[in-house]
Amino acid sequence: MQSGGRQAEAPGRGPRVLVVGGGIAGLGAAQRLCRHPAFSHLRVLEATARAGGRIRSEHSFGGVVEVGAHWIHGPSQGNPVFQLAAKYGLLGEKALSEENQLIETGGHVGLPSVSYASSGVSVSLELVAEMASLFYSLIDQTREFLQAAETTPPSVGEYLKEKIRQHMAGWTEDEETKKLKLAILKNLFNVECCVSGTHSMDLVALAPFGEYTVLPGLDCTFPEGYQGLTDCIMASLPKDVMVFDKPVKTIHWNGSFREASAPGETFPVLVECEDGDCFPAHHVVVTVPLGFFKKHLDTFFEPPLPTEKVEAIRKIGFGTNNKIFLEFEEPFWEPDCQHIQVVWEDMSPLEDTAPELQDAWFKKLIGFWVLPPFQASHVLCGFIAGLESEFMETLSDEDVLRSLTQVLRRVTGNPQLPAPRSMLRSCWHSAPYTRGSYSYVAVGSSGDDMDRLAQPLPSDGKGAQRGFPGGSVVGSLPAMRETRARSLGREDPLEKEIATHSSILAWRIPWTEEPDGLQSVGSQRVRHD
């Protein structure tokens, strides 16, 4: 079969390899491949005009803000992102200190500096700490179900609610205090939704939840922006590797394609782009977000993927977590404030009825993190997950700003609180090439579904190593089961299986999930965000 459209030929000999997607997963795969002399014929096809995917640092408010990935959680020697950031000189002295790397956080979000209730009063931080201790102890208990064949209940949310009901039997406070305790717990449920990238913890499977690995280290950020990491990786690649504004329409695989510039040679894969350009290749590395897969599953592969892969894509969860930045001329918070919690006293994790989105979407907002002060502005960063987050994307900037101004005036008890002077927000669900933020193991799925996606096509029986369940599936050479090169003197897995001629092959990089929320690379429950 002769491939049509413009043939984009790369120089050099050896197998042609295409990487679809220029987020950190695609860049990481390209960097690894470029280090190997056998892969001089490499291209990365990126749908947008920029690399980095959901790592997106923007200059705004007189400084740098992270619209996508925000922290490195678990910044210590076992975290590949931390290692890369340290290697490239992107972290501050405190983050690099041994003391910082040894701090054990348990993978949990820290306590707020101040907690406001919807009635306009401050919530006792002692009460917040008590409920956080209960909640995170229950989260830690979910690890007990890791090897369970079946769990009752099946979801993390149902398990947490069952345990909370049991604890409530021992509460001796008055009804108002009990109600406030439940409201605090509801906020913590919403925090966990941001951490897990889901609308509800009832959607997150209980048994595989314990697979997530938590690394030591106190969360850190990139002083000059997370995008410095992808910029450094980009700089290490040959200049002609990246192809921007090249969205892929269909990957034709397991075929026999030819091109005029290579007479007599056939290629098992043809990548067809939306603009009509076609790229024949021997191997394709697919690093597009799972949300995009879900949206375009019926048309992105020809022939269609095998049933087991289709089912895995459909079963694995993929949710939305967004940020809303609010800029103030003067701060209304105390100088040492780092985290503002918002508690809605009419909300409880034990109540399943949800208000209409248009009336109460903002109640899913977990609160605000105080960004380091910029030259002439003060900025709060709010997090919101789930359907409420997706609904927020449909509103105008004016509507969002108006709603959050009303929220802040209400919870602080100050009706004269000055409105933010500007706003910036992420909209990851409506972004056409992401369709959400990051994945989770949903009820009805398991880590085995991740492994199924990591198997090469056509199947040669040599699957990739099971990595971090929170991560996306990356297609690559079957031999690339490790993210680090083996030491000298040992066989190179790329060299060993260079003769394998599969067309779409699988390799999942544990540290390359591109979230927008509270999770971080290096830990399965705390991705790089």
UniProtKB/TrEMBL annotation:
<dbReference type="GO" id="GO:0005777">
    <property type="term" value="C:peroxisome"/>
</dbReference>
<feature type="domain" description="Amine oxidase">
    <location>
        <begin position="24"/>
        <end position="458"/>
    </location>
</feature>
<protein>
    <recommendedName>
        <fullName>Peroxisomal N(1)-acetyl-spermine/spermidine oxidase</fullName>
        <ecNumber>1.5.3.13</ecNumber>
    </recommendedName>
</protein>
<dbReference type="Pfam" id="PF01593">
    <property type="entry name" value="Amino_oxidase"/>
</dbReference>
<comment type="pathway">
    <text>Amine and polyamine metabolism; spermine metabolism.</text>
</comment>
<dbReference type="InterPro" id="IPR036188">
    <property type="entry name" value="FAD/NAD-bd_sf"/>
</dbReference>
<keyword id="KW-0274">FAD</keyword>
<dbReference type="GO" id="GO:0052903">
    <property type="term" value="F:N(1)-acetylpolyamine oxidase (3-acetamidopropanal-forming) activity"/>
</dbReference>
<keyword id="KW-0007">Acetylation</keyword>
<dbReference type="InterPro" id="IPR002937">
    <property type="entry name" value="Amino_oxidase"/>
</dbReference>
<keyword id="KW-0560">Oxidoreductase</keyword>
<dbReference type="InterPro" id="IPR050281">
    <property type="entry name" value="Flavin_monoamine_oxidase"/>
</dbReference>
<comment type="subunit">
    <text>Monomer.</text>
</comment>
<keyword id="KW-0963">Cytoplasm</keyword>
<keyword id="KW-0576">Peroxisome</keyword>
<keyword id="KW-0285">Flavoprotein</keyword>
<comment type="similarity">
    <text>Belongs to the flavin monoamine oxidase family.</text>
</comment>
